Amino acid sequence: SLIDQLPETSAQVVCMDEGAIAPPLETVAGKDYSANPTHPVRAQQLAYVIYTSGSTGKPKGVLIEHRSLSNFLLAMADTLSITEADTLLAVTTLSFDIAALELFLPLTVGATVALVSREVAVDAPQLRAAILETKTTVMQATPATWRLLLTEAWPGPLKALCGGEALPPDLAEQLLLTGSALWNLYGPTETTIWSAAKQIVSS
């Protein structure tokens, strides 16, 4: 089992596989793991720190609190009508805050997160194949990635989220012609990922 392969550590180990073949947690390394951790998370505590160069070109750490991330995720779940039936394909590099939406939003509603490598995310045929294989229903990408994907046979209707750069009108029309629902997203890192979201409809 994996738990037997962990190195010696003073950190508290939390095993998520209840009833797994591994020995009960309370017997591992002679430590008491029978109770949940007693470290409550408060709303004003940090969820993460992400570095951005902004307009200065000099990296600065942006501190995002749990309450900001929680509010953002709840608002986006409502805005996009994400449900447990959805699968979101995560294509964003983890060094960008946008990845937090991809990883955590589906988990807030019991939906599925599908992960792909950077190599797949930048290759149109592989990206299309990943969308089909994972039965993706939601994807967030920059205009460049959406244009890349449009060079392939479209994989089917999606909840298409576009952000990170301005959404050109011609690209919006192309995405809408696929039968996808389209949202344009904007926000600086300091406002917790996106601060504005607008569904785009065909004119």
Automatic annotation (TrEMBL):
Record-level GO BP terms: amino acid activation for nonribosomal peptide biosynthetic process; enterobactin biosynthetic process
InterPro entries linked to this entry: AMP-binding, AMP-binding_CS, AMP-dep_synth/lig_dom
One of the record's GO cellular component terms: cytosol
Recorded GO MF terms: 2,3-dihydroxybenzoate-serine ligase activity; phosphopantetheine binding
Top-level taxon of origin: Bacteria
Domain AMP-dependent synthetase/ligase, first and last residues per copy: 7-196
Matching PANTHER family: FATTY ACID SYNTHASE, NONRIBOSOMAL PEPTIDE SYNTHETASE
The protein's name: Non-ribosomal peptide synthetase
